Amino acid sequence: MIATGFLGNERYVVQVLNETHIPELTVLQQEVVDALPNKAILQPLDNEELRFILSGNGLMIGVFVEGKLIAFRALLEPMIDEEHLGYDIGLKTEKELRKVLYQEISNVHPDYRGHGLQRTMAEIIMQQVDESKFHTVCATVMPGNIASLKDKFSQHMHIAALKLKYGGKLRYVFMKSLPYKEHKWAEEQFVPMDNTVAQQQLLKSGFIGISMRADGPDWLIQYVK
């Protein structure tokens, strides 16, 4: 056990997961997917991907209530290939790429939403990171996945790129340097999330995306430089 707390009146415990938890993880992922109105928002990890992380290529923590897994969050130590997110944020050498961790999937059972578990798990799992070994955390998020975007911004991660990944899927590439240093800027612009070209032009000219806000039914991304 690495942490404990309460969800309303229910006590939860957090522990590091291992390969014996794969059946529980599979069930939870399916329960989460079944509750989503837009199934495309979440790409569940298959057993092979779960086993890869749990066999020493990252870290996964789980939240349990009365012995039942109700949430989990994962970090991945990625293989170095042409899709490595380090390339998307400007890293070039293998030495730099080996210091990158990915924030992978994060799931909360539908019955336990509204308690801030995503953020709680983010804080707990990031406390486990060896900052002498890893200097950067990266993640990808689909534009329109508001919950995941809010999650990344809440951790002081910022948008470093917006491009096609994974065989042609548009994704924001988020990053955060370890240890975190607050950004200082002289310019800012708010751009509609659905204006891909304008965002890509700002990113190309040195802006980064650091937050978002609602604008009626739409969302604006705050870009600064």
Secondary structure blueprint with pairings:
Blueprint lengths: L2 E5 L2 E7 L5 H13 L12 H8 L3 E8 L2 E9 L8 H4 L5 H4 L2 E9 L8 H11 L8 E6 L4 H9 L3 E8 L3 E9 L10 E5 L3 H9 L3 E8 L2 E7 L1
Parallel strand pairs: 5-6
Antiparallel strand pairs: 1-2, 2-3, 3-4, 4-5, 6-8, 7-8, 9-11, 10-11
GO molecular function, one term: acyltransferase activity, transferring groups other than amino-acyl groups
Protein name: N-acetyltransferase domain-containing protein
InterPro entries: Acyl_CoA_acyltransferase, GNAT_dom
Compact overview of the structure:
This protein is an alpha+beta fold. It has helices at residues 22-34, 47-54, 85-88, 94-97, 117-127, 146-154, 196-204; strands at 3-7, 10-16, 58-65, 68-76, 100-108, 136-141, 158-165, 169-177, 188-192, 208-215, 218-224. The protein contains seven helices and eleven strands.
Question: How would you classify the helix and strand content by structural class?
Answer: alpha+beta
Oligomer: single chain
Give the tally of β-strands.
11
Strands of the widest sheet, in order across it, are 1-2-3-4-5-6-8-7
Using only CA atoms, what is the Rg? 18 Å
Question: What do these coordinates show?
Answer:
By secondary structure, the chain is α+β, with helices and mostly antiparallel strands. The protein has 2 domains: about 5-180, Aminopeptidase; about 185-225, no CATH class. Helices cover about 25% and strands about 35% of the residues. It contains 7 helices and 11 strands. The chain has helices at about 20-35, 45-55, 85-90, 95, 115-125, 145-155, 195-205; strands at about 5, 10-15, 60-65, 70-75, 100-110, 135-140, 160-165, 170-175, 190, 210-215, 220-225. The strands form 2 sheets. The chain has an 8-stranded mixed beta sheet with strand order 1-2-3-4-5-6-8-7. β5, α5 and β6 form a beta-alpha-beta unit. The protein is globular and about 50 Å long. The model has no long low-confidence stretch (mean pLDDT about 95).
